Amino acid sequence: MGKSGLPEPGVATIGDSTFFHAGDSTSLNMVHNKGIGTVILMDKQHDCHDQAIKTIRGSVSTLMGEKVKKVDLYELVKAIGVEKILKVNAFDVKAMEIALKECNLLQGNGCSHR
Where are the extended beta strands (E) located within 1-114? Predict the structure, then answer.
């Protein structure tokens, strides 16, 4: 991301379920290859791909209802090596606008995490 030479900064959105399925490795790839851009990671804590809400790897229970430790997306993204991570309430439009502007000014990779 950000290697195309386009004048606008790259911005991507991804939900938590898709992040656990495919976004963690692509984020690591972006960091490793010095990609430039902003990823908005929406932490919904549910998977609705098949119209049935079920638990995901980031939730506090297994599919059988057993309690487990929740995967902290903030800490996971930090461990991947993302340079700037902001936690923002997506319903606070002004805060989201400020966060996006801040991340888009960054000449590196950033993540706005809800």
Answer: 11-15, 37-42, 84-87, 109-113
Locate the domains of the chain by residue range. 11-106
Question: pLDDT per residue over 24-44, tens digit each?
Answer: 888 889 889 888 888 898 887
Beta strand pairing call for 109-113 and 11-15: unpaired
**For residues 39 and 27, what is the distance between their CA atoms, to the nearest angstrom?**
9
CA distances from 22 to 26, 27, 52, 96 (A): 7, 9, 20, 24
Number of neighbours of residue 30 by Cβ within 10 angstroms: 24
- By three-state DSSP, how is residue 110 classified? strand
